[in-house]
Amino acid sequence: MSEPKQVLIVRKDLNMRKGKIAAQVAHASMKVLLDLMEEYTNDDHAIDGLILPFYYNIPLNKWIKGKFTKVCVSVDSEEELLDLYKKAQDAGILCSLITDSGLTEFHGVPTNTVVAIGPEFPEKLDLITGHLKLL
Fold first, then answer.
1. Given 14, 89, 90, 99, which is the most exposed site by the fewest CB atoms within 10 A?
2. Bigger pLDDT: 23 or 56?
3. The domain containing residue 111 runs over which residues?
4. What pTM value is reported for the model?
């Protein structure tokens, strides 16, 4: 079986600066993991930390313990970005959508910028993202 990877999809139509793209991609990659985390409380029921219960997800488990492979690709519109996000959700693949607050580049308008899909095995990911061009 091949190694799992994460695909990060960036909207090219926004013409984001390179630093903005890097930040948005990092947000998306992390959000997949953060969305899975559960709060850990101590005996006083105060939040003591977070736990990542990845035992149930074989691709996630292998990805975290393996090469942590990420591939950045692009789309030309918000519609295409959202369509791929929905396809990943419908396929039961871990994914996250980043909506930037718009404070630095989008004139105060919240804007969908990046979707992370996976980690998942390429055989499943490529059905959704295999046609996309590298960023």
1. 90
2. 23
3. 5-134
4. 0.91
